[in-house]
Design brief:
By secondary structure, the chain is of the alpha/beta class. The protein is 29% helix and 18% strand. Strand 4, helix 5 and strand 5 form a beta-alpha-beta unit. Helix 1 crosses helix 9 and helix 4 packs parallel to helix 5. It is globular. The two termini are 25 Å apart.
Length: 295
Amino acid sequence: MMRLPIASSTEGLDACFVGVPIDHGTSNRPGTRFGPREIRSSSVVVHEVNVTTGATPFQSLMVADVGDVWVNLYNLPDTCRSIKESFAKMIANGCIPLTAGGDHTITYPILQAIAGKYGPVGLVHVDAHGDCSDTMLGEKIAHGTPFRRAVEEGLLDTKRVVQIGLRGSGYSVDDNKYQLDNGFRVVPAEQCWHKSLSPLMNEVKEQMGDGPVYISFDIDALDPAFAPGTGTPEIGGLTSIQGLEVVRGCRGMNVVGADLVEVSPPYDTTGITALTGANLLFEMLCILPGVKYDK
């Protein structure tokens, strides 16, 4: 990732990039197992300094790529077990993982590991979908259920959860009732149209306070005009500029981990979706605690 050295462990690292190449939690178009590979390939054009914000992450932190987590492509629960155990080891020394997915199922076992170290965390969730279904085709573990499982297991500080960019058709007019009943702040995409999201992120930063925060960015939060390579695209989404505003707005939060999920390269022959994902992961690195700014 980003021409960084490869490491076999997180010993001595402040942050790391890691891939989780799965798509057997998807409900529509598969292909996200190829996401980490394409994001890494696209990331070679990312340079070491964020010219706009002045962030110098590679001069501030020890960062490496630790490769991909082992996954069982024939058994999703076993894959989740492997992800949880791998991330628990990865973060034991305080290293902050920046994860390239993979479908959104991966966030559930990652949060299990994160909460095991830090306790319930705040969540900045950027997505077209709430991913709080109870089941999908009768299954409790899938890419549409991770945050319901996280609430049930006490992994989230639900008063410090915000979901940004939700939209599209659903199963009922009360599709977001579960989140609202549990204290989430839900910001539909329609509330984001034709405006900067920097003022919103100032409010979110106040909501998150000083506690640990996890960022989960589903690439389908962006309008398919900007990120067509994903499994469940929805029109009327965020622009890539608004995506940058959301991530940059997390600067100053106590971020303990982040992921960029649902990049599905087979549906984007241009590669722009993977390129966008790589740049958003770089922006996530730039807002981590300890990163110095020259501006």
